[in-house]
Design goal:
Strand content: over 45%
Shape: globular
Distance between the termini: 38 Å
Largest sheet: 5 strands, antiparallel
Number of helices: 0
Number of strands: 22
Radius of gyration: 16 Å
Oligomer: single chain
Length: 180
């Protein structure tokens, strides 16, 4: 049986302990922390992205935001926005806070089967496209977010992170390699 929860692990006087599970949508696959301290979760089979906020010491799930067809990767932009990929539609979306209401923006086309995101030190968003074997940058060009051409990497890029020097690191699932 699938649990469909997220859990917080905290340091309690030098020992790490798991807190009570928080129910979320079906098949939670990725997390990101918002700049406001909230936690965001993408639930793949529920087709939702959901914010979890700390309300006077109690973590409370907010109503989910619908994303038809498999939200997969999440990252937090330097501006506080939340970015999500939709694996089936080969798109990335930005979720912005508009006067207290989180709203998804228009989709941005990216390579085939985007599964992971990371935020570059310059504020750009990077996407790993597992079926097109590419990593690509989404940059804010004069106020418009634009996907740049994909950069070929090893087979089936599946996870990304940003190095402290600003470089982007990618895992290549099918090649059993890591690449900078």
């Amino acid at each position: 049986e699938i649990d469909n929860t997220v859990q917080q692990i905290v340091n309690d006087n030098g020992g790490w302990t798991a807190q009570a599970p928080i129910p979320v949508g079906y098949t939670p696959v990725s997390l990101t922390a918002g700049l406001d301290g909230s936690i965001w979760v993408a639930s793949y089979d529920a087709d939702t992205v959901q914010q979890i906020v700390n309300d006077d010491g109690v973590w409370t799930p907010q109503p989910p935001i619908e994303f038809n067809y498999f939200p997969r990767g999440l990252t937090t932009g330097l501006d506080g926005s939340i970015w999500v990929t939709r694996a089936t539609y080969a798109t990335a979306h930005q979720i912005v806070n508009d006067n207290g209401v989180w709203t998804k923006q228009e989709s941005i086309g990216v390579g085939h089967r985007p599964v992971a995101l990371t935020t570059g030190l310059d504020g750009s968003i990077w996407v790993a496209n597992s079926d097109s074997d590419t990593v690509q940058q989404i940059a804010n060009d004069n106020g418009v977010w634009t996907a740049h051409a994909g950069i070929g990497v090893g087979a089936t890029p599946y996870a990304l992170t940003t190095g402290l020097d600003g470089s982007i690191w990618v895992t290549n699932y099918a090649d059993n390699t890591v690449q900078q």
